[in-house]
């Protein structure tokens, strides 16, 4: 995935993920990562099937660069 260029593009992507989420059965899905102390969204995590057979799974963690090194990725895993 390429870097998201601006807030409008990110909002569009998150909206698309929300629509996709309606077709994904738990425990699969996408979730935002929030710093609870300040209520700021700092990234996202996903658990999705891997093509071509959808029998293996991918765990994805994306944390905004300014928030790296604070333990968020370890917390979501």
Please characterize this protein's 3D structure:
- The protein has 77 residues and is an alpha+beta fold.
- Helix content is 26%, strand content 34%.
- The chain has two helices and three strands.
- A three-stranded antiparallel beta sheet has the order 1-2-3.
- The relative contact order is 0.14.
- The model has no long low-confidence stretch (mean pLDDT 86).
Considering the chains and any ligands shown, give keywords for the structure.
single chain, 77 residues, alpha+beta, 3-stranded antiparallel sheet, 3 strands
Percent helix:
25-40%
The topology string of helices and strands comes to HEEEH
Structural class: alpha+beta
Please tell me the overall pLDDT.
86
Task: Report strand %.
Answer: 25-35%
> Would you identify the regions where 5 or more consecutive residues have pLDDT less than 50?
none
The largest sheet is: 3 strands, antiparallel
Number of helices: 2
Strand order of the largest sheet: 1-2-3
Radius of gyration: 13 Å
* First-last Cα distance: 20 Å
How many β strands by DSSP? 3
What best-fitting shape do the alpha-carbon axes yield?
globular
């Amino acid at each position: 995935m390429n870097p998201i260029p601006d807030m409008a593009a990110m909002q569009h992507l998150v909206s698309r993920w929300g629509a996709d989420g309606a077709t994904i059965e738990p425990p699969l899905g996408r979730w935002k990562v929030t710093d609870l102390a300040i209520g700021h969204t700092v990234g996202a995590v996903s658990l999705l099937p891997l093509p071509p057979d959808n029998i293996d799974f991918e765990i994805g963690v994306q944390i905004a660069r300014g928030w790296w090194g604070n333990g968020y990725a370890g917390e979501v895993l």
